[in-house]
From TrEMBL:
This is G-alpha-domain-containing protein. GO terms for molecular function: G protein-coupled receptor binding; G-protein beta/gamma-subunit complex binding; GTP binding; GTPase activity; metal ion binding. GO terms for biological process: adenylate cyclase-modulating G protein-coupled receptor signaling pathway. Pfam families: G-alpha. SUPFAM superfamilies: P-loop containing nucleoside triphosphate hydrolases, Transducin (alpha subunit), insertion domain. GTP binds at L275, R276, A277, R278, V279, S280, T281, N374, K375, I376, D377, A436. The lineage of its organism: Eukaryota, Fungi, Dikarya, Basidiomycota, Agaricomycotina. One of its GO terms (cellular component) is heterotrimeric G-protein complex. It comes from Gymnopus androsaceus JB14. Keywords: GTP-binding, Magnesium, Metal-binding, Nucleotide-binding, Transducer. SMART domains: G_alpha. Residues 1-28 are annotated as: Disordered.
Length: 464
């Protein structure tokens, strides 16, 4: 049966994209044609509106392709705190990935241990690590310490080997301060950072270590000498006290207390070991944390955490991440310490200066801020040891309690007041007292941050 569809003669055919469409029915009246064209125009308008809505939704999905974005800020002396918080995020949201990467931290932990040992050896040498003669160096070492220093001397080459393996740098590690150059890792070798090594962001040091298992035979051979004879030597502890150096307050230096375990051939880093391991990253860095459970944040998306660095030269903000929720970390114990980069600047004063800069930045005016006052455990230990907070923070009256609860409350009030004074417009601030190496307590804080971000995302999508 022939088709009932009528077509125009070849001479009357027009391109398919011609608008309005050509008249196909020769018996269609002018009024019928206008009515048909009006209906087709309306159908096209509806179709275009649907296409526009779909494109808008697609772009919105691209923008919110991740569960959350956090801009992580902090002073330079908070680098290790920020690193530990990042590891806590990984441990909570992506535990499988965290445990899979634990082996990568094995050489880092060994390097932290070796650098701590070499720091002590350097302190016992005739000249201190800073290049000037130390008060304790004027006292001659007894035979026991002299023999210990001689027997542990090979660890200098172990440190150089581990440093090269992790950072990929071929530059030698110089322990003799008389030959230390400006480019040497020891040019900025400060007691507060005695166990850290710096790598540049994006250097891929984890990738270099992923498929390598290094030998720790030399370190294992010296384990007993390190733990039982050097670190626990009363003269060594006395020299550290005289120099006002508290290595026990450095998380990575706790490996000195557990040398036998971490130097075993079959040693596998525990979560606590990974949290205490220290590698300082120079420059801004992006961290993607995959959400292993869709129940964790409601949509199973990745989290992106931007660390722009804490050095004064790294405190610029990138415009493409200013819609992120920001977190500032600052050490609550910093009241009695100076910056390693500028010994004339108090750490607490520098943290407050950075906080004012963040609060007053107009680009961050619409960003909710999270303040983490970290290392509350060390603050507690220092105050209990008799360190007077009022001697360093003169605005804290001497008749006020020199106790953790009162001091931490005062610190929170200081930062809250600065936030109110310097914010360009009213916005929320969420302060927390934290101990980043306490995984349970930090997990509670992270859960609170997660809830805040989820509420923020839902409010921006008009769901709330």
């Amino acid at each position: 049966m022939p088709s009932a569809t009528r077509s125009l003669p070849p001479s009357r055919k027009e391109p398919e994209d011609t608008w309005p469409p050509p008249l196909e029915l020769s018996d269609e009246t002018l009024e019928e044609r206008e009515l048909r064209l009006e209906k087709e125009r309306e159908a096209k308008r509806v179709s275009d509106a649907i296409d526009l809505a779909l494109n808008t939704e697609r772009e919105a999905l691209k923008k919110n392709a991740h569960g959350a974005k956090i801009l992580l800020l902090g002073a330079i002396h908070c680098a290790c705190s920020k690193s530990t918080v990042l590891k806590n995020f990984m441990l909570k949201f992506s535990p499988t990935t965290f445990h899979a990467e634990a082996e990568i931290w094995r050489p880092v932990i060994h390097l932290n241990l070796v650098r701590s040992v070499n720091f002590i050896l350097n302190l016992l040498s005739p000249r201190s690590a800073s290049g000037s003669t130390s008060p304790t160096a004027n006292s001659p070492l007894d035979d026991t310490l002299r023999r210990l220093c001689f027997s542990l001397a090979p660890l200098k080459s172990v440190e150089m080997s581990l440093t090269k393996r992790i950072s990929g740098s071929a530059s030698p590690v110089v322990l003799d301060s008389s030959t230390t150059s400006a480019d040497s890792p020891y040019a900025h070798y400060h007691p507060a950072k005695a166990s850290e090594i710096s790598v540049r962001s994006g250097a891929g040091w984890k990738g270099l270590l992923k498929f390598r298992r290094h030998s720790n035979a030399s370190l294992r051979a010296h384990a007993q000498t390190i733990s039982l004879r050097l670190w626990r030597n009363p003269d060594v502890q006395e020299k550290l006290r005289e120099e006002d150096i508290s290595l026990k307050n450095q998380p990575a230096c706790t490996f000195l207390e557990d040398v036998a375990r971490i130097t075993q051939e079959d040693y596998f880093p525990s979560p606590d070991d990974v949290l205490r391991a220290r590698v300082s990253t120079i420059g801004p860095e992006e961290h993607r944390i995959p959400m292993e459970s869709s129940l964790e944040n409601g949509n199973g998306k990745d989290w992106i955490i931007y660390d722009v660095g804490g050095d004064r030269s790294q405190r610029g903000l990138s415009s493409n991440i200013l819609d992120s929720l920001s977190a500032l970390l600052t050490d609550s114990i910093a009241f009695n310490q100076a910056l390693a980069e500028d010994e004339t600047v108090n750490r607490l004063a520098d943290s407050m200066k950075l906080w004012r800069m963040i609060c007053s930045n107009p680009l961050l005016a619409s960003v909710d801020l999270i303040l983490l006052l970290n290392k509350i455990d060390i603050l507690d230990a220092q105050l209990k040891a008799g360190v007077q907070f009022s001697n360093y923070v003169t605005s804290y009256k001497k008749d006020l309690p020199n106790e953790t609860a009162a001091v931490s409350r005062y610190l929170l009030e200081m930062f809250t007041s600065l936030h109110k004074q310097h914010s360009t417009k009213k916005r929320k601030m969420h302060p927390h007292l934290t101990c980043a190496i306490d995984t349970k307590a930090t997990a509670t804080v992270i859960t609170h941050i997660q809830e805040l971000i989820l509420i923020k995302i839902l409010s921006e999508t008009s769901i709330l």
